[in-house]
Amino acid sequence: xxxxxxxxxxxxxxxxxxxxxxxxxxxxxxxxxxxxxxxxxxxxxxxxxxxxxxxxxxxxxxxxxxxxxxxxxxxxxxxxxxxxxxxxxxxxxxxxxxxxxxxxxxxxxxxxxxxxxxxxxxxxxxxxxxxxxxxxxxxxxxxxxxxxxxxxxxxxxxxxxxxxxxxxxxxxxxxxxxxxxxxxxxxxxxxxxxxxxxxxxxxxxxxxxxxxxxxxxxxxxxxxxxxxxxxxxxxxxxxxxxxxxxxxxxxxxxxxxxxxxxxxxxxxxxxxxxxxxxxxxxxxxxxxxxxxxxxxxxxxxxxxxxxxxxxxxxxxxxxxxxxxxxxxxxxxxxxxxxxxxxxxxxxxxxxxxxxxxxxxxxxxxxxxxxxxxxxxxxxxxxxxxxxxxxxxxxxxxx
Length: 398
What we know:
- By secondary structure, the protein is of the alpha/beta class.
- It folds into 3 domains: 14-81, Arc Repressor Mutant, subunit A, CATH 1.10.10.10; 87-199 and 372-393, 2-Layer Sandwich (Nucleotidyltransferase, domain 5), CATH 3.30.420.40; 208-366, 2-Layer Sandwich (Nucleotidyltransferase, domain 5), CATH 3.30.420.40.
- 41% of the residues lie in helices and 19% in strands.
- β3 and β4 form a beta hairpin.
- The longest helix is centred in the C-terminal third of the chain and has 25 residues, at 300-324.
């Protein structure tokens, strides 16, 4: 546990707290381990970063150990989170299953498993079983070392109160106090976040430091996107940044969408859309997994439909890529496992974007694969625990 001591010294008003939070985020994700790396990634003066680090060291939020070999000058001290033997337990919720695991500072992931989870039964029926699973993971790794719980949800999330808001495929979850429910049971900080944002943060943590602008697309039963701008998750004014699934596309015409509108991208490019389209063509499919299985077996109808879905997604992405000019576009979710889908997205981006935009653009599957959201959820939990600890030693100022 962190010791309570004198409040952190403050420099330039709220600027110090913002810088300190940036330091903690980078150390938690493993993107930086030295003052030099922190200064480069934060775009701050080395002296300013050193001051922030010294304050965090003094309060046990950061620890220092060993050295890195240097090509010249003094060896660089290695920084880590204080009490970095702690960990978070995390879960990514799907329609019928949950992906669970233990996330360590720096992004390490262990004890990954898939367990039954009936989202459609509502939170009060589904969450107790998940809590028991996460509790067993905590007991296995030492309950006293548990720092936080992270939950990755397939719907819009209002991060401040920790609520799901108007989710299309989560009946009974709207405005349910998920975070409070879990914090009451685990007595540690809990972070809940949209699945695409979790995937964006998880994938960013394992990518080269120079890829500071990226779009992560989750293409599964639904479609979502998470945006990393200047190395940090970009939420937008109301937390809805990356909501590309409800962009209207001409090919969708007046097809009804789960949002209540018509003609959305989701109605022609999502896994749910593919199930509907293939059923209309006489194929026996009931889930996105069925669609993927047919496409892997080179079924012509399924392969054509998957390729067309990739084209529609690529068309919408092209407008966003032209506007944002990211370093990379990462594709995740079950549809990203299909080469015809990925190839169609990539083709549309090259066709629809300015050559200067695609000159160095990385377009590829998420390196973490199905674990990207889990890693991100754990990172959010560890960061929330650190942020709350920092507020405690700053006297509540942040």
